[in-house]
């Protein structure tokens, strides 16, 4: 083997080692949750049962996305709004309402109209309000 071939081989080995090290550095993986989550009991609040102050805040902001919480005494309300949609007939499902030692987590999904009969021609602003027992924790709403 010539000296030039040895140098080329050495350069390729160094490049391969660098690429491997960079790849390994980027693959640190997700840290497992230190705090396991548990389910949080909740009630979906009917529009007419939402506290007045909260209802006014939702009405003022419902054209855009809403992710907020509101505490009223021993009750805490978790609100997720999806902003203005072109038609009516939308609904929202709760994917997750859990907590760990420091936070409450809410994850919801916007569902389109189930069938043609539910679709109204007027725009709508779907939102959901959940009531939980106040926990004094930070809230994360997806």
Task: Write up this protein.
- This protein is of the alpha+beta class and 142 residues long.
- The chain folds into 2 domains: 1-30; 38-141, no CATH class.
- Helices cover 24% and strands 35% of the residues.
- It has 2 helices and 8 strands, in the order αββαββββββ.
- The strands form 2 sheets. A 4-stranded mixed β-sheet has the order 1-5-6-8, with no helix packed on it. Strands 2-7-4-3 form a 4-stranded antiparallel β-sheet, covered by helices on one side.
- β3 and β4 (75-82) form a beta hairpin.
- It is extended.
- It starts with a helix and ends with a strand.
- Mean pLDDT is 84; it is low at 28-32.
Structural shape? extended
Query: Separation of termini?
Result: 61 Å
Helix content: 10-25%
- Poorly predicted segments: 28-32
How much of the polypeptide forms β-strand, as a percent range? 25-35%
Q: Largest beta sheet, briefly? A: 4 strands, mixed
Enumerate the strands of the largest sheet in spatial order, edge to edge or round the barrel: 1-5-6-8
Total strands: the figure is 8
CA radius of gyration: 25 Å
Distinct helical segment count? 2
């Amino acid at each position: 083997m010539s000296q030039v071939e040895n140098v080329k081989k050495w350069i390729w080995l160094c490049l391969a080692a660098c690429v491997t090290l960079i790849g390994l550095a980027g693959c640190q993986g997700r840290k497992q949750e230190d705090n396991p989550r548990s389910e949080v009991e909740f009630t979906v609040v009917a529009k007419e049962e939402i506290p007045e102050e909260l209802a006014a805040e939702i009405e003022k902001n419902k054209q855009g996305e809403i992710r907020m919480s509101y505490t009223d005494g021993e009750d805490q309300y978790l609100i997720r709004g999806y902003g203005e949609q072109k038609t009516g007939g939308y609904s929202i499902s709760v994917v997750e309402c859990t907590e760990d030692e420091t936070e409450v987590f809410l994850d919801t999904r916007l569902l389109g109209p189930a069938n043609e009969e539910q679709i109204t021609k007027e725009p709508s602003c779907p939102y959901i309000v959940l009531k939980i027992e106040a926990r004094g924790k930070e809230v994360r709403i997806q």
